[in-house]
Design brief:
The complex is a heterotrimer of chains A (284), B (694) and C (208). Chain A is of the alpha+beta class and 284 residues long. Chain A contains 6 helices and 11 strands. In chain A, helix 2 packs antiparallel against helix 3. The longest helix of chain A has 34 residues. By secondary structure, chain B is an all-alpha fold. Chain B is globular, with a radius of gyration of 25 Å. The relative contact order of chain B is 0.10. With 208 residues, chain C is mostly helical. Chain C contains 6 helices and no strands. The radius of gyration of chain C is 19 Å and the shape is elongated. Chains in contact: A-B, B-C. At the A-B interface, helix 1, helix 2, helix 3, strand 7 and strand 9 of A face helix 6, helix 11, helix 12, helix 13 and helix 14 of B.
């Protein structure tokens, strides 16, 4: 009886283990929460189907032929001097070429459709966000709302978001897998990312480009709120009385990862521009 | 006064640079592991020195190996180097997997900086000091034999390349004991590796090790290309060359044209770091995007430098172990050349996410997928080679089959990564890590191991143990799937690569499985060493002096095992693609030469070892800002080259009588051996003479 | 195959020294491959220069730094040296008295050193103007490209000295001959690279 209890405990543990394993994929594009990621997932599904036809024959033929023509099997043909056939040449060159040509059209159209620089089509004007990669945190500025936050990006659901990125330090890469792909942020340069959330929720974001000892801590949450909640949140943020002033500013550039997100109730004029210029100034 | 002298002598070195001192001051697990690694390097070096001294082998080691210009010995030394470096880099991989498995929601046992050094050395070593030496060693050994030549075109240059590679690998080992290695990954992206963000010695170690290695590889490429173009025996037209030689040729051409971009990238980074230039800095007009272009202009062809010789090995192995002509020789040659050419047209796919416009990304994505066509053709050519053959599942063939099945999966994920919108999602994640390991472990490592098993009897005169070979093979395959399939899942879930600590509990099971896989891979390597030991122990039972244990097809099997230093008593003349196979079928595989003549071979030379060791010392001086050492080193290298140019007594003659003696002994032995059928080729009955059927 | 059928690119010894010619086939081909990989290095430095040209960061610009007259004189010097080296090669091929070979090589050496000297003077002037490599990305790329060529010429000069010494000590044995053939290729190659530097760097810089 003890043994069976042990067994069932083991089983429970194992299934919990597997279940938590399955939860991993929910953090990715498979569990998409915005139009960009949804299109990416669709593209992935199409490609996956095509690829079955690419890999299938090899995965089937290799073991079948190797085993059938094994040395000990004397019931098959042995043609040691056979080494060419136009028919087979046709089979091995033409279909792969055709598949690649087909995929090429797909690649061309999807690469343009999902170009991170392409604004999302929407009746609403996009929410402007400026993201700055720092050691080892992200600063998100919402210039129109005149506030900023470290390691927290709050956006309204169903409204396009246009993110301009730069880096206050080395190169970084911003990825929010459930919403869109990634784009690099480089000092002195601006890159762009367009995305939107289609349902409320909390989505994981991170820097994927190694940038030093605190790299693994450079994670943040993207919180997508219904528009009314978003507006309320903005008001709260601006009322929080914690400005990004001359005292707080240098701390941003120190190598550190804040344990909790920091919200700044107000920001200096042209903060993003200032960082753009500052990061290319000569270091003493 | 001490203040003035010591910094000038020791440069940047301080006691704290030693991992032992760091571990003493701050005894964390991470530092102790670092000190342990350093002790292993020191202990290993002392042990090797003591062993050689004990056996009294210094003189013979020096005169028969280290200064040798014989392409066969140089090839073997390259492969020994590859195994040493493989061992280190695989242990590093196991440590990283253990760290990630242990670090879900906890800091684990490796500090972030230590972890970063591990992934940087692991990548740099596996590419530059495991894969490159392994394939260069294999080509060195096999290619001149296959084209019926006595050596490569420039034997001294060959030795210099070996020693530059060896010196660079030595520098990697020294970095374990003195100072720290770069944390910037194997690609060393600035501005992170610039002085402003990485002021330590790490990136300098990386720069000089890689630079020495890449210069060595460029010279190797030149050497091999000239050898293949100019030194083929009579009748060996281009379209009669074994496929391995074709792939060696394409790889050499890639080396000639693709290594210089790496040299430029590292040299410019060095100018930034040493002289304050502004190529890739954030400030004063530097532009790191230029580095990405330069590096991947090398980096992508490099992938094919690694993979093409592997394709060559598979072509040889599959044909031999199917007892059948290679299917679609012309297709394979065309596909090889097409891959080599296309490899220069796809480098942007390494940074689709750098913000260039959609036209560029789409064009490079399509070019990338286009490489899939010739690669797919090759796989089918091997399948049709087995078709209507008689397939034997010996160890090299097992590796080939595992490769074909596994490589295809890597190809699929490669297509996914080639599609820019999908790459945006999985770039820089473990998906990418899984993908390139999926290409390089089956594509490169399995091939090198297949080649090792296949040509080992030729090089040493006895077969490797079959049982341990199979066990090790099983571990390499099982370990690969366990270690890397979970990474695809984690990457698709957005887990960034190079992560020292993990905060998602959901990742834990996958990291456990991957960790177990890494341990299995480690066992695979251990079993490979067990196999070597067992094989050496039982060598007398497995001798194949006659030289043809696998019913081989090319010229390399038509001479004794191991081959005499001059390879061929008389340079062969060939009439077709599988000259030895045909000769066996015609009943005259070992024609004694009409007459024995003197053969001229290059004398040993100290130039290679001197340049390699002094080159590494120069690099060490540069790393630590010991300028005196760097200056002396550069002058010494110049002096060595000049001195060598004045040497005139550089050749020696092997007298005809000695050649005749050697050859007759072999032919006599051969007459006494019973030819064996293929079914028993993996038993001691195999003495290296094939029974010819049909 | 007869000696006449097998030729390598560049000046062939051909029938004048059939034995060495055969050896030269691989040796010179190998050196060509080396030059091609060296050419890739220069090509990438040109590309880098092109990319970084706008990155003057408020510092010196091409128009403010390049002086056409000295550069033109350098060009003439280097081109003349290529001609004199050509004469040396021809003298070697046709077995002219050794003094003739040494004489032409000596003239080449002097011209080469003169080129290096003039170039160093140019760089010194630029440094005097505050145009040094750490000033901007543009100047970094200029000082990686032009001095690398100068360094090549300098090594070429050392090589000429060595070959003159060897021609005296060993006479014109096979290795000396082959090495002079290679040196010739190297010297002419540097000419070509210089012409590219002259047109792409200096002329273009002055047009802007």
């Amino acid at each position: 009886m003890n043994a069976s209890r042990g067994k069932s405990a083991c089983f429970a543990l194992l299934s919990a283990f597997l279940l938590s394993g399955c939860n991993a994929v929910k953090l990715g594009v498979m569990n998409h929460a915005g139009p960009i990621a949804a299109s990416q997932w669709r593209l992935y599904s199409i490609v996956a189907v095509v690829l079955i036809f690419v890999a299938g024959p090899v995965l089937l033929l290799t073991p079948l032929i190797a085993w059938h023509y094994r040395l000990s099997n004397k019931h098959n043909a042995f043609r040691p001097n056979w080494g060419f056939s136009w028919t087979l040449e046709g089979f091995i060159w033409i279909p792969p070429t055709a598949i690649v040509i087909g995929l090429a059209f797909l690649v061309w159209s999807y690469t343009h459709a999902l170009d991170p620089y392409r604004p999302l089509v929407s009746a609403q004007a996009p929410l402007e966000v400026q993201a700055v990669g720092l050691d080892w945190k992200w600063l998100f500025i919402e210039p129109d709302q005149r506030f900023a936050a470290v390691n927290l990006l709050v956006i309204p659901v169903n409204r396009p978001v246009h993110i301009s990125l730069t880096s206050g330090t080395v190169m970084q890469s911003l990825l929010i897998p459930q919403l869109s792909g990634q784009i690099y942020a480089m000092a002195g340069m601006t890159t762009h990312l367009n995305l939107a959330a289609s349902r409320p929720g909390v989505y994981r974001g991170e820097n994927t480009q190694f940038n030093g000892a605190g790299f693994q801590n450079e994670k943040f949450n993207v919180v997508a709120l219904p528009p009314a909640d978003y507006d309320r949140w903005v008001e709260q943020a601006r009322a929080s009385g914690h400005p990004l002033d001359a005292a707080a500013y240098p701390a941003l550039f120190r190598q550190s990862s804040p344990p909790q997100p920091i919200v700044f109730s107000s920001i200096p004029q042209d903060l993003f521009q200032r960082i753009l210029v500052q990061s290319t100034e000569p270091r003493s | 006064m001490t203040e003035g002298v010591w910094p000038a002598v020791l440069g940047r070195f301080v006691w704290h640079s030693l991992p032992f001192v760091r571990a003493w001051e701050n005894p964390t697990a991470s530092e102790i592991i670092g000190a342990g690694a350093a002790s292993i390097v020191i202990f290993g070096a002392v042990l090797v020195v003591a062993l050689i001294t004990r056996l009294g082998k210094w003189r013979s080691l020096w005169s028969e190996w280290l200064t040798s210009l014989d392409h066969k010995k140089i090839g073997i030394m390259y492969i020994v180097l590859a195994f040493v470096m493989l061992t280190r880099a695989l242990i590093e991989a196991v440590l990283m997997r253990m760290q990630q498995a242990a670090a879900v929601g906890s800091p684990g046992f490796l500090a972030p900086n230590h972890f970063a050094q591990l992934f940087s050395t692991h990548g740099s070593i596996m590419i530059f000091f495991m894969a490159m030496p392994f394939l260069v060693g294999l080509i060195n050994y096999v290619m001149p034999l296959q084209i019926g030549s006595r050596d490569v075109a420039f034997p001294l240059l060959n030795s210099i390349s070996l020693w530059l590679t060896g010196g660079a690998a030595g520098l990697m080992m020294v970095s374990l004991v003195i100072g720290e290695f770069s944390t910037g990954g194997w690609s060393g992206y600035p501005p992170y590796t610039e002085l402003a963000f990485s002021p330590g010695v790490g990136p300098d170690y990386w720069i000089w090790a890689v630079t020495l290695g890449s210069v060595g590889s460029t010279l190797t490429g030149i050497n091999f290309a000239v050898t293949i173009y100019k030194m083929r025996c009579d009748g060996m037209h281009l379209m009669r060359m074994p496929l391995f030689v074709w792939t060696a040729l394409c790889t050499s051409i890639l080396m000639i044209f693709a290594m210089p971009p790496l040299t430029v990238a590292t040299a410019l980074l060095a100018l930034d770091r040493y002289l304050g230039f502004h190529f890739f800095t954030n400030d004063l007009g530097g532009n790191m995007m230029n580095y990405a272009n330069l590096f991947w202009l090398f980096g992508h062809p490099e992938v094919y430098i690694l993979i093409l010789p592997a394709f060559g090995v598979y072509s040889e192995v599959v044909a031999t172990f199917s007892s059948k002509e290679l299917y679609g020789y012309t297709s394979l040659v065309l596909a090889t050349a097409a891959i080599a050419l296309l490899s220069f047209t796809v480098w942007v796919h390494h940074f689709f996410t750098m913000g260039q416009n959609a036209n560029i990304n789409a064009a490079f994505g399509i070019a990338t997928m286009a490489i899939g066509v010739p690669t797919g053709v090759k796989i089918y050519d091997w399948i049709w080679t087995m078709f209507r053959g008689e397939v034997r599942f010996s160890v090299p063939m097992l590796y080939s089959l595992a490769f074909m099945m596994t490589f295809v999966l890597g190809g699929l994920t490669g297509i996914i990564l080639a599609i820019p919108p999908l790459d945006y999602l999985v770039h820089n994640t473990l998906f990418l890590v899984a993908h390139f390991h999926n290409m390089l472990i089956p594509g490169l490592l399995y091939a090198m191991l297949a080649g090792y098993h296949y040509w080992f009897p030729k090089a040493f005169g006895f077969r490797l143990d079959e049982k341990w070979g199979r066990i090790s093979f099983g571990c390499w395959v099982a370990g690969f799937y366990l270690a890397f399939m979970p990474l695809y899942v984690l990457g698709a879930a957005g887990m960034a690569r190079r992560t020292q600590e993990v905060f998602e509990p959901a990742f834990r099971p996958w990291l456990y499985v991957a960790g177990a896989g890494a341990l299995v891979l480690f066992c695979a390597l251990a079993f490979l060493f067990v196999q070597l030991w067992v094989s050496i122990r039982d060598r007398d039972a497995n001798r194949v002096f006659a030289g043809d244990p696998w019913d081989g097809r090319g010229l390399e099997w038509s001479i004794s095992a191991p081959p005499p230093e001059y390879n061929y008593a008389a340079l062969p003349r060939v009439h077709g693609r599988d000259p030895f196979y045909e000769a066996k079928r015609k009943g005259n595989p070992y024609p004694p030469p009409a007459s024995y003549d003197d053969i001229e071979l290059p004398k040993n030379s100290k130039t290679g070892p001197v340049i390699g060791v002094v080159g590494a010392a120069t690099a060490f001086g540069l790393v630590w800002h010991m300028w005196w050492l760097a200056v002396i080193g550069v002058l010494a290298i110049g002096a060595t080259v000049i001195a060598r140019s004045f040497a005139r007594d550089v050749r020696r003659i092997i007298p005809a009588a000695e050649i005749e003696r050697t050859e007759r002994r072999w032919l006599r032995a051969e007459a006494e051996i019973t030819p064996i059928p293929r079914a028993v080729e993996t038993t001691p009955a195999n003495r290296g003479l094939a029974e010819v059927s049909g | 195959m007869s000696v006449n059928e097998l030729r390598h690119v560049g000046l062939n010894l051909g029938r004048t020294d059939a034995l060495t010619h055969e050896e030269a086939l691989s040796a010179v081909f190998g050196f060509w491959l080396f030059l091609m990989s060296d050419a890739v290095i220069f090509a990438l430095l040109f590309a880098t220069y092109g990319v970084m040209l706008p990155a003057t960061v408020g510092g010196p610009t091409p128009a403010s730094e390049y002086r056409i007259l000295p550069v033109f004189l350098e060009t003439l010097t280097l081109l003349t040296s290529s001609f004199t080296f050509g004469m040396a090669s021809v003298a070697m091929k046709h077995g002219a008295p050794r003094q003739q070979l040494l004489g032409w090589m000596g003239v080449t050496l002097v011209l080469g050193l003169a080129f290096v000297g003039m170039e160093l003077h140019d760089f010194a002037t630029m440094f005097g103007d505050g145009a040094y490599p750490t000033r901007s990305g543009y100047l970094s790329s200029f000082f990686a490209l032009a001095p690398l060529h100068g360094l090549h010429v300098f090594f070429g000069c050392i090589w000429i000295v060595l070959m003159m010494i060897q021609a005296i000590t060993f006479g014109l044995d096979a290795r000396v001959k082959i090495n002079i053939l290679r040196l010739g290729l190297f010297w002419h190659f540097l000419d070509i690279v210089w012409i590219a530097i002259f047109s792409v760097v200096y002329l273009q810089g002055l047009i802007r």
